[in-house]
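Can anyone check this?
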Amino acid sequence: MVSRPLGLSLVVCCSMASSRRSYQRSYFSRSTLRSHRPIYVRYRHVEQQLQEKKMRLMSKKPEIQKCLDAINLLVDKREEDEDVEVDFPLADQVYARARVHKDAGYVGLWLGAGVMVEYELEEAKGLLEEQLVSCEQQLTEVDEDWGYVADQTTTTQVTLARLYNHSVELARR
């Protein structure tokens, strides 16, 4: 079995051993069927986790881009030696208008868990660009991992179906 970074093993389709006696084949197919069910459940669980992680990252990416665009606007207006008039949210559906002075060189970034840190514009821009690149890399990794897990889930489903059909065939004999 080949191990993947997710800690999951590679599933191989099993073929039926026709040289064994009937009771051995029956025992083989039932025990193998029992051993593959937990593997299938584990792959489905990991697939769900990857899907949730992808949704979190996809919702995070536009927020980072929006903050980066706002900082780029502030940097551009500072270079043009102009004040910036902006609307910012106070609460849901409640906005306030403010004028940002051209000499304002700091912004506050929410880090999460009720923590806001003040950064210089260039430092904040660099931080957000790093976060955007990291987010895109993580999305790519999640897509690759999801592809692997989807293939393994399908392989496991096919194996389970074959084993089940084989055990039904043996029961008929």
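Reply from J.R.: I decoded it. The CA atoms of residues 50 and 142 lie 6 Å apart.
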